[in-house]
Amino acid sequence: MSSPAIKAVLGPTNTGKTHLAVERLCAHSSGAIGFPLRLLAREVYDRVVAIKGADNVALITGEERIDPPNARWKLCTMEAMDRDADLAFIAIDEAQLGADRERGHVFTDRFLNTRGRDETMILGSSSLIPMVQALEPKAEIVTRPRFSTLSHAGPVKLSRLPPRSAVVAFSAEQVYAVAEMLRRFRGGAAVVMGALSPQTRNAQVEMFQSGEVDYIVATDAIGMGLNLDVNHVAFASLAKFDGERRRRLTIAEMAQIAGRAGRHQTDGTFGALAGEGGAEFRDDEIFAIENHSFPPLQRLYWRDARPRLHSLDTLIEDLETAPDHPALAAAPEAIDLTVARMLSAEPAIAQAAKGKAMVGRFWDACSLPDFRQLGAEHHARFVARLWQDLSTGTGHIAHDFAAARIAELDRTGGDIGTLQGRIAAIRSWSYIAQRPDWLLQREEMAERARGVERKLSEALHARLTERFVNRRTAVLMRKLGADAGLLPVTLGEHDSVLVDGEEIGHLSGFAFHVDPQARLEMRRLLLAAAERHLPRLLDKRARELLEDAAEGRNIAWNGTHLAWNGHNVAQLRTGRDMFRPAIQLEPGLDLLSPARRAEIEAALNAFLDEELQTLDPLRRVAEGAKELSSGPELRALLIRLSEQGGIIDREESGLVDLSPEQRQMMRKLGVKVGALDIFMPAMLRARSLDHWAALARLAGQHVAPVEAQMPAALPVAKGSAPLAYRRAGDRFVRIDLAERLLHAAHQRRTRWTDAGKKRHRQPPRFTLDPTMALSMGLSTKAYAHLLRLAGFTADAPPAWPEGKFGPPTPPRWRWRPRRAGEAHGGAGQRHTHRNTGDNRKAAPRKNGGRNRPDRPAPQPVAGNPFAELAELLS
Are 683 and 644 in contact (CB under 8 A)? Predict the structure, then answer.
């Protein structure tokens, strides 16, 4: 009977070694492959399940066990691999890791002792050839060439790193720093480290593989067979801490990592990050990596995989035994041996570890991996607590203790480091739950631990993505190339602009505003994206504006701008004259085509012309001022009217210089001459005045405010009087209503004067009723001040003698026209008329044939306007 075939398939990365092993596994009736990583075992498990079916395939790792009863094909981590299993095919992946200081003795043991009935396959680097020849001289050695070319690309800055690149760092701090920089420059990166759970690593790798991000930052774990679509590998450093000292990577380690670049027929490149201290390849290293020429391994680490279990002393003695083959070297003391040595020195523990079964159980407890990486002393205390239950009572870990520890870890709050610590701790309990005789409710505890690890892994993936991925930037970096025109750009809620579903800013009318939360270095990128993709959306919005303008809706003039739906679309500038302002479209409309801009400008000009029709009376006055036939006096007056909104003070108007013909021309233009002001009644509307004020401000004039409702009177406030108002005492009164009051006063004066001339030879005094003024909101004081301005004065009525009482007599008024150059009568100014005196006693009056004595001056009566007016004017 011939001995089973042993074949060593060796070569650099990307030679299809693992693919060949999977094909050979599936070709046999049963088999197993040992992998260096749980992640890699899971990846191949999914492939084999697709071929053989889930009921026939097992996944066995220290923390996870999917082992159907009839499973014949098994994918395992190296530590979980059963070296005594009776299977037709066995494959050992990455066998060169037998030279690793921490795990090398496990790989060496499987390389030497695990065999398939029909075929055994050793997979690894070409540097393993001397070890195969020395330890398995009958093995067939097959070398395979790399499918693609691997070449050195030189140093490159992080900001110019090509897409589909992997950056390799050798500490968590460096990984985070590089990932943060990639987030700022390139939109982010996936992160892969040994401290992550397999589920988190899977999610991060999937994010890279699916193209959600174009970069991945990893530790040297990336070199352990992870199949990634990487085109370039950049080294952030060429040195690492190996557990004892910081040293430069060996050429084999560099090649193992650099070899991740290029898959199958796609060539790959490698290089260092520019500016990183010490990250520069030497010429001999570049030559060796490009030509896959590595120094051969001189030895593999070995430790007795089956120590005697008679006592703790014999156990430790066997674990410290040196190998007897020159190709093997004693493995450095691993943490399991350190923990066993520390615990065996404690009398209570040593006393419980008696007999082969208990020593074996003790060694199993010490072999618990230190997932938390807190050091031998801390890990030893944890193992001692487990051993306390495993060595007493039923020999099982207390259910309450295990459940409580798992429940403590079932929390998804905290930062990345906190979540990593909890995942490491729950992995310990996942491992414990896979032991066949450590827990009574093993399946229940295993399910609980898997559930907690799943939740923590999802939370950690979310934290990593939140911190190191800016999906918006990543999308833009990928799409701002030749195919950028195909990038889907849409409007979301509240006019947010979405590029491939990611918000880059929002539209305010036609103006694009970058997301205020965007970093400063991102603003240029977002503006470029908007400039490239917004014209289509803006053109649709422009068509809506034109439709609204045609129907006269949703467009408004707010003084200095024309607005559509509340957003400014054009700014007004001074034009040929005050009544024809020019329109300048807002910069946001620059992205529209010239033809569309011309349409919008024409529509807005039409709207503005319609709005300004309310100023046609004033425009005719301004045109009349240009007519030479009007004469210089009238032209000067009309110019002042047009410049002051159709209102000027009569005293300063030059009215006295106009001829009757010029006054007639002025009346035809709609100009009214009042007692105090010359004004245009057609302009005394809030909308007309508001439009004129806006145009005046454009022309640089300082214009008083315009009252929106234009009430008859307003309380006096600080500042000048509002437009179309004049001050009267403690009130501002509207000019046209002031003229109405004065006109009523003159009508009253005229009736009394005409009647008096028939009875007397001199015009008598007359009384005024302040009721109309009060109904307009004027106070008695304001009304009196207005009358004085128009030249009216009042005499106090005769006083009642002492001891006599009666109703107050209304004051009697008189008026005289102002002479040329005389100012308006102010408060307290008195005017003396011919044949009358201000200080003379009134003659006694007859009443029924009896003389009536003089009356005293009336005292003001609350609420009596006549008395108040008399008091003010006495």
Answer: no
Q: Residues 456, 463: contact at Cβ < 8 Å?
A: no
CB-based contacts of 553: which residues, under 8 Å, 6+ apart? Answer: none
Domain termination residue (choose one: 98, 121, 143): 143
b (16+ CB within 10 A) / e for 196-212: bbbbbbbbbbebbbeeb
First vs last C-alpha separation in the chain: 145
Q: What are the residues whose beta carbons fall under 8 Å from the beta carbon of 10, sequence distance 6 or more? A: 17, 122, 123, 124, 125, 126, 128, 129, 132, 141, 142, 143, 144
| CA–CA separation, 453 and 499 (whole Å) | 35
Confidence grade of residue 739 (pLDDT, cut at 50, 70, 90): very high
Is residue 304 located within the same domain as residue 443? yes
Residue 704 makes CB contacts below 8 A (sequence gap 6+) with: 693, 719, 720, 721, 722, 723
Number of domains in the chain: 5
pLDDT in tens, 576-632: 888 889 999 988 888 888 999 999 999 999 999 998 899 999 999 998 888 888 889
Helix axes 312-319, 355-366, angle to 10 degrees: 50
Tokens of 453: 């690890």
Q: Look-up: residue for tokens 């306390």? A: 388
The answer on 280 and 320 residing in a single domain is no
Which residue(s) pair with 673 in the sheet? 678
Domain's final residue, options 120, 143, 166: 143
**Is the domain of 138 the same as that of 175?**
no
Q: Which residues have a Cβ under 8 Å from the Cβ of 675 and sit 6 or more positions away?
A: 650, 739, 742, 743, 746, 790
**Range(s) of the domain holding residue 449:** 300-467
Query: Of the candidates 460, 23, 424, 399, which has an alpha carbon nearest to the alpha carbon of residue 204?
Result: 460
Query: Are 122 and 43 members of one domain?
Result: yes
Average pLDDT over the chain, rounded to an integer: 83
- Decide: 604 and 581 in contact? Cβ < 8 Å: no
Residue 766: predicted pLDDT: 79
326 by Cβ neighbours in 10 Å (0-12 / 13-18 / 19+) ranks as exposed
Residue 587 lies in a domain: yes
Does a structural domain hold residue 798? yes
pLDDT value at position 468? 82
DSSP, collapsed to helix, strand or coil, labels residue 188 as strand
- Residue 330: φ, ψ to 5°: -65, 130
Angle (CA) 715-719-725 rounded to 5° is 55
CATH of the domain at 96: 3.40.50.300
CA distance 380 to 536: 67
Say whether pTM exceeds 0.70: no
- What tokens appear for 863 in the block? 């609420």
Residue 233 shares a structural domain with residue 258? yes
Closest CA to 10 of 123, 140, 136, 134: 123
Query: Are residues 459 and 357 part of one domain?
Result: yes
Q: Which residues contact 384 (CB under 8 A, 6 or more apart)?
A: 343, 346, 349
* Residue partners of 750: CB distance under 8 A and separation at least 6: none
The answer to whether residue 415 sits within a structural domain is yes
Report the DSSP pairing between strands 850-851 and 677-679. unpaired
Same structural domain, 328 and 463: yes
User: Does 506 lie in the same domain as 456?
Assistant: no
Maximal CA-CA distance, the chain: 168
List pLDDT tens digits, range 201-240.
888 888 888 888 889 998 877 766 567 888 999 998 888 8
Whether residue 644 lies inside any domain: the answer is no
